[in-house]
Amino acid sequence: MVYETIRCELTDGVATVTLDRPDVLNAMNQAMRGELVRCFAGLGDDDDVRAIVVTGAGERAFSAGADIREFVEPQIPVRFRAQRRRLDFRQAMDGCAQPIVAAIRGYALGGGLELALACDIRIAGEDAQLGLTEINLAIIPGGGGTQRLPRLVGRGKALEMILTGARIGAAEALRIGLVERVVPATEALAHALELARAIAQKAPVALRYAKEAVVKGLELPLAGGLRLENDLATLLRTTEDRLEGARAFLDKRKPRWTGR
Ligand code: COA
Question: Hey, what domains does the chain have and what are their CATH numbers?
Answer without folding.
Answer: 6-200 (3.90.226.10), 204-251 (1.10.12.10)
